[in-house]
């Protein structure tokens, strides 16, 4: 009898530790008061939809390969949230919910899924950094995200492409 390999189980994302995120933000604000006061509010978020992906993408950010991310614009509507603005700060947590870096949004653009370009795919820093890889992996990801929200992914959905810079890391605190 031939057995088929089982899909690898994925660890669910742990909820972000908001108290630890506040502590990381306070370290940043104390070290760089002018930068922090320009935007006294911040978001707390995670990359991906499971712990391993969150950790993998966060490692790319910390290594300097990932300087961009993308979200379906519809996700903000479903979740009742406003998208980030230029200059917005986000504390990104790992898959266990621990805050690791603070980024500041430096650029935003909207495009249809099929109109995202190779430059953006490269800036996301994932896989071989090609547009083909970006489209394959993001389509799979957004199909999971949409299914979890009781919706269906379609290639004409608008993608919010975000550029960012790391302004603080847990290694600095």
From TrEMBL:
<protein>
    <submittedName>
        <fullName>ASCH domain-containing protein</fullName>
    </submittedName>
</protein>
<dbReference type="Pfam" id="PF04266">
    <property type="entry name" value="ASCH"/>
</dbReference>
<feature type="domain" description="ASCH">
    <location>
        <begin position="45"/>
        <end position="168"/>
    </location>
</feature>
<dbReference type="InterPro" id="IPR009326">
    <property type="entry name" value="DUF984"/>
</dbReference>
<dbReference type="InterPro" id="IPR015947">
    <property type="entry name" value="PUA-like_sf"/>
</dbReference>
<dbReference type="InterPro" id="IPR007374">
    <property type="entry name" value="ASCH_domain"/>
</dbReference>
């Amino acid at each position: 009898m031939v057995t088929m390999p089982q899909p690898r189980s994925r660890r669910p994302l742990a909820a972000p530790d908001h108290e630890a995120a506040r502590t990381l933000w306070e370290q940043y604000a104390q070290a760089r008061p002018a930068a922090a006061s320009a935007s006294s509010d911040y978001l707390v978020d995670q990359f991906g939809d499971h712990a391993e992906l969150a950790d993998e993408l966060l490692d790319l950010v910390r290594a300097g390969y990932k300087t961009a991310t993308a979200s379906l614009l519809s996700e903000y509507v479903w979740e009742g949230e406003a998208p980030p603005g230029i200059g917005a700060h986000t504390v990104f947590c790992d898959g266990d919910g621990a805050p690791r870096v603070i980024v500041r949004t430096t650029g935003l653009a909207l495009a249809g899924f099929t109109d995202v370009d190779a430059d953006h795919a490269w800036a996301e820093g994932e896989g071989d950094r090609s547009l083909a890889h970006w489209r394959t992996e993001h389509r799979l990801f957004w199909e999971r995200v949409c299914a979890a929200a009781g919706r269906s992914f379609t290639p004409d959905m608008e993608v919010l492409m975000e550029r960012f810079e790391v302004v603080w890391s847990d290694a600095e605190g």
